[in-house]
Automatic annotation (TrEMBL):
It is a multi-pass membrane protein. InterPro entries: Glycosyltransferase_2. Belongs to the glycosyltransferase 2 family. It is found in: Membrane. Keywords: Glycosyltransferase, Membrane, Transferase, Transmembrane, Transmembrane helix. This is Glycosyltransferase. It comes from Streptomyces haneummycinicus. GO terms for cellular component: plasma membrane. PANTHER family: PROPHAGE BACTOPRENOL GLUCOSYL TRANSFERASE HOMOLOG, UNDECAPRENYL-PHOSPHATE 4-DEOXY-4-FORMAMIDO-L-ARABINOSE TRANSFERASE-RELATED. GO terms for molecular function: glycosyltransferase activity. The chain crosses the membrane at residues 42-60, 72-97. The keyword Transferase applies.
């Protein structure tokens, strides 16, 4: 639902951009698990790309052994795979902690659109 806001009464705001940015970040991270879900998706992406990197490293070892450095293939396989697994694990763990935090706050699972009072006001 959109609404039109009147112009500011007291001129320009004295609230600095840095504080506004911090408030915005707190608003996104404090009331939402979306950033945690994005990290989980990023973990899946990194893991998928690491598998592609592993295939590339192994293909270079098999088809172009003359240009690969000794130990490079194994190093790349281990680093890429563990990096992808760690990113995915952090995303899953973060999502779990985010849900636990949301439950601990005790907020209702609904949003009140309108308050109707029966006492005449």
């Amino acid at each position: 639902m959109r609404f039109d806001r009147d112009e500011r009464f007291a001129g320009e705001t004295k609230y600095p951009l840095r504080k506004m940015a911090r408030l915005a970040i707190d608003g996104v991270t404090g009331f939402s698990t979306v950033p945690l879900k994005l990290i989980t998706r990023l973990g899946f992406l990194v893991l998928t790309l690491s598998f592609a990197g592993i295939v590339y490293a192994l293909a270079m070892k098999v088809f172009r052994p003359d240009i690969t450095v000794s130990g490079w293939t194994m190093l790349m396989v281990v680093v890429l795979f563990l990096g992808g697994v760690q990113m995915l694990s952090l995303g899953v763990l973060g999502s779990y902690i985010g849900r636990t935090y949301s439950e601990a706050q005790g907020r209702p699972l609904y949003i009140v659109r309108q308050v109707v009072r029966h006492d005449g006001h």
